[in-house]
Amino acid sequence: FTDTKLLNSVYSNKKRPSASGLEFIGPLVSSVEETPYPISTVIKGEIPSWITGSFLRNGPGRFEFGESKFNHWFDGMALMHRFHIKDGQVTYSSCFLRSDSYVQNAEKNRIVVSEFGTLATPDPCKNIFAWFFSRFQIPKATDNAGVSFVKYKGDFYVSTETNFMRKIDSVSLETKEKVDWSEYIAINAATAHPHYDRDGATYNLGNSYGRNGFFYHILRVPPGDGKNDVADLSGAEILCSIPASDPRKPSYYHSFVMSENYIVFIEQPIKLDPLKFMLYRVAGKSFHKVMSWNPELETIFHVADRHTGQLIKTKYYSSAMFTLHQINAYEDNGYLIMDMCCGDDGTVIGDFTMENLQASGEELDKFFNSLCTNLPRRYVLPLDVKEDEPNDHNLINLPYTTATAVKTVTGVCDHEDLYNDDLLQYGGLEFPQINYTYYNARPYRYFYACGFGHVFGDSLLKMDLEGKKLKVWRHAGLFPSEPVFVPAPDAKDEDDGVVMSVVITPREKKSSFLLVLDAKTFTELGRAEVPVDIPYGTHGLFNEMS
Fold first, then answer.
1. Residue 475 marked ligand-binding
2. Fewest Cβ atoms nearer than 10 Å: which of 128, 138, 321, 459?
3. What stretches pass through the bilayer (predicted)?
């Protein structure tokens, strides 16, 4: 590796306006019943007849067992949702994931499996010595896979951020076998945000730790036909291993960047402390307390060739930032363009406790105003930085971006803000989605997201990168989920299709609906009203069916 450093010296302080009198959202994080058999919905407007398939969603749906309650929103038991669409009609069903965590908690009628923000209490029936020493045991990883639906070899799984996934019947939502990544390759965990190439292979990011230190691994699972009777990750391989810059304090990550020829791991200054993890276990504190935000540290972009697994020789640095979700990435004339949602305060992850989400009045306002504003940014990396490249010279020569990269002794790389100030009135944005089928890893113009004028998304946004112009769907008291784009079968333009989102409200029970917007005009085509309560969820996808 060369010592070339590209450092982003800009620290953005742009923030949404302070809020007061925010609406109480406690009902959006309350336990609900499952709806295991499909029920009809009431259609208002029109659902395009060309849409045939299932909108699958995941997220927490049960927050207590008996008298014991989960402390953190991420800990709720996974509830899977299916909106099946055909001939302009929609049915709805939902099922709790029958994970080992769910089954064991239900059998004991108390929380017996530790989660991200909730440490399971020792069995009160144990004698005092067994109770004491149980504090020194490392808790087993959970299989409560409540973050997203993912595909490997054409089969559907639900995933979280541990080494366990669950295979799912995408029609009945039946829980199938438990899958342990470590039985296929030497990793301890993988993200819930894989990428897919156009040949059907799936890429992901995992990690491992041992005598040789802590490593981040780029993974590849080969294509398949989706007709496997049992879970099958055979052929999975580690393409590239990246040593942690500080093996004592590895970085937290939620996703990664992929273009046609490169994969980028973003080593951000949200750090995990394994020693503190053990000490907290003894003290009876939960996992999310071992994460720390270190703004004095740099963010490092590790770039690897997607085909060979080789890391490129240049090291890229930016000032401290954190990112959960990528928008898109593509290559252009020797540059790698990376668009992502970024924040300047990585403490946000641990803040989504049930106590904070169920607050009201001034306490809710205070919590919301303490959260950083996530905003879209563009970083541009020059892929071929020569040893004799002159210092103090901008290496980026693209007409459509103001992002810069300057090689100096310390290095300077400046991102471009992918928004105008009007975005701030909608609270910034998160949960970005694109026309993934046809435009992922390619130059693109549009992305869709949730605006965050509240703790949870309270608007849907369409960003046109030509002029950074917004289209907005927003109605008081309604909280839409992550938008998912579905291309029209005869699409000619990038935004020919629909955007789907599940909309819920704390104002009235059993008033949820599936919203379908025309992606081009961003106006409502129709909705499917569901007479059930649906909690605020995380991620989903559309499963096109013939």
1. no
2. 128
3. none
